[in-house]
Write a structure and sequence with these properties.
By secondary structure, this protein is mostly beta strands. Helix content is 12%, strand content 39%. It has a domain at 103-263: Prolyl oligopeptidase, N-terminal domain (Methylamine Dehydrogenase, Chain H), CATH 2.130.10. The strands form nine sheets. Strands 4, 5, 6, 7 and 8 form a five-stranded antiparallel β-sheet that branches. A hairpin with a 6-residue loop joins strand 7 (126-131) and strand 8 (138-141).
């Protein structure tokens, strides 16, 4: 039996589709002649079961016949799309709506605030910084100038403890491969450091260097097709060439595992996360203050997920679903990691998902998903709930968190009828003030969002968001949506019965 978790109905669209607004343009499309794709004789034998794989030749993405096949497929696809008479009008309308400045929430690094901005149609957002809240924004890194086609992407990986340096990564042409560089923040001077063959990595700083993850260099010509195996963690000291980096962790018996490094804000603990896929982690640790030579196991994998938010002296604050499907925050002594020694800081809510947790200003911010809307609460490190942060409406909020000495943080709020808006939040008094609004090309005040609940067959109340223009009558919108829900429920029950 299938259950509906969330359904969003944009009723304005439903109304507009109920009536015909003029005669539809006649579109005459010619038959599509797809190019033939060759097959090869290739059969694998998996423990007695033979599986044919006639298209494996397409996995060699650098081969000439593969490139020719892609060109032929693109010719058919774009040839079809170009003949759609109203395609240009759709593109023009969407381009116009999307063409407005987009900002990320700022965050503080020392005396500077960093944020990203896209003027509207830039291929990549530009990273800016400014000195203090009232400083003049300056371009820090512009990825649009790093490639001719605008496909270079930049991400800030981590700042040194004194915020003097930042490690950043550049990805080219959508590849997962990264090159890591280091820049001096105040002067924007790029240092000589360059780290290659990096994938799925951050920069976890310790003293005058950082931990990062990489693979061995692939065979030349197979950079995009060679199988990635034996992920490793290294420590890089500023000024050194990459060949001098120190191998910190590897496992030669597990070639397909991924390894990520994290240091706590005070650089006391080094955490190594181990994963075998997209869900479930294992976590090792070292107390760097105690000069531990070997890693200790703090969380055994891979049944549950663990994320260390920060440390409270010798204990770790951890966001986890271990015996808590809706997640919780626990305090763990890594030297005595048995579950009998855990302390619940934010216990699991049996009804609502604690989808995110972060620290900032010496507090813990818990982001709950309640009836498909964000609710954010501020706690101290003992788990005492200090307040629910008042959001402007039902919607989604993100960006909470920062350094321990932060007094203010920023978050972004948005909903179906509330364009992304950045708020400045005062941690001490709980006030939120608008920092920056989106200059969108429609009037959000013309629309309204309301939440209602529709009882499903088993009595579960399913949350719905009704989004409509204010000129429409509220009762008519509600009745239409409930009619749609009843029809959808019936169809799903028929599908479920058929599958059973």
């Amino acid at each position: 039996m299938y259950k509906i978790v969330t359904i969003t109905i944009i009723s304005a669209l439903a109304f507009s589709s109920c009536s015909e607004r003029g005669k539809k343009p006649e579109v005459k499309m010619e038959p599509i002649n797809y190019p033939q794709t060759k097959k090869i004789e290739l059969v694998d034998d998996y423990f007695g079961t033979k599986v044919a794989d006639p298209y494996r030749w397409l996995e060699n993405d650098t081969a000439g016949d593969t490139k020719q096949w892609v060109e032929e497929q693109n010719k058919v696809t774009f040839g079809y799309l170009e003949k759609i008479p109203y395609r240009s009008k759709i593109k023009e309308r969407l381009t116009n709506i999307f063409n407005y400045p987009k900002y990320s929430s700022p965050f503080r690094a020392g005396e500077y605030y960093f944020f990203s901005k896209n003027d509207g149609l830039q291929n990549q957002s530009v990273i800016y910084y400014q000195k203090g809240l009232d400083g003049t924004p300056e371009i820090f890194l512009d990825p649009n100038k790093m490639s001719d086609d605008g496909t270079a992407a930049v991400s800030l990986l981590g700042f040194s403890k004194d915020k003097k340096y930042v490690a950043y990564a550049i990805n080219q042409s959508g590849s997962d491969w990264q090159n890591i560089f280091v820049m001096e923040v105040a002067t924007k001077k790029q240092l000589s450091d360059k780290l290659e063959w990096v994938k799925f990595s951050g920069a976890a700083w310790k003293n005058d260097g950082f931990y990062y993850s990489r693979y061995s260099a692939p065979v030349k010509g197979t950079e995009l097709s060679q199988k990635n195996e034996y992920h490793k963690i290294y420590y890089h000291k500023l000024g050194d060439t990459q060949d001098k980096d120190v191998l910190v962790y590897e496992d030669k018996t597990k070639p397909l595992r991924y390894y990520g490094a994290q240091t706590t804000e005070d650089e006391r603990f080094l955490l190594v996360y181990i994963s075998e896929g997209t869900d479930g982690t294992e976590c090792l640790y070292k107390d760097l203050n105690a000069n531990d030579k070997n890693f200790g196991l703090v969380f055994k994998g891979f049944k549950y997920n663990y994320s260390v938010l920060n440390n409270d002296a010798e204990r770790l604050l951890v966001h986890t679903d271990d015996n808590a499907p809706n997640y919780r925050v626990v305090s763990v002594d890594p030297k005595n990691p048995g579950k009998e020694n855990w302390k619940d800081i934010i216990p699991e809510d049996s009804k609502n998902l604690l989808q995110m947790a972060a620290t900032g200003g010496g507090k813990i911010f818990g982001e709950y998903l309640k009836d498909v809307a964000t609710h954010v609460y501020q706690y101290d490190y003992t788990g005492k709930m200090e307040r629910e942060i008042t959001l402007p409406a039902l919607g989604n909020a993100s960006g909470f968190g920062g350094d321990t000495d932060d007094k203010i943080i920023f978050y972004t709020f948005t909903s179906f009828t509330y364009p992304p808006t950045i708020y400045k939040y005062d941690i001490a008094n709980g006030s939120s003030d608008v920092w920056r609004k989106s200059d969108v090309k429609f009037n959000p005040d013309d629309y309204e969002t309301k939440q209602v609940f529709y009882p499903s067959k088993d009595g579960t109340k399913v949350p719905l968001f009704l989004v409509y223009k204010k000129v429409l009558k509220w009762m008519a919108v509600t009745q239409l949506c409930f009619m749609v829900m009843e029809d959808l429920t019936f169809r799903l029950s028929q599908t479920s019965a058929h599958l059973d």
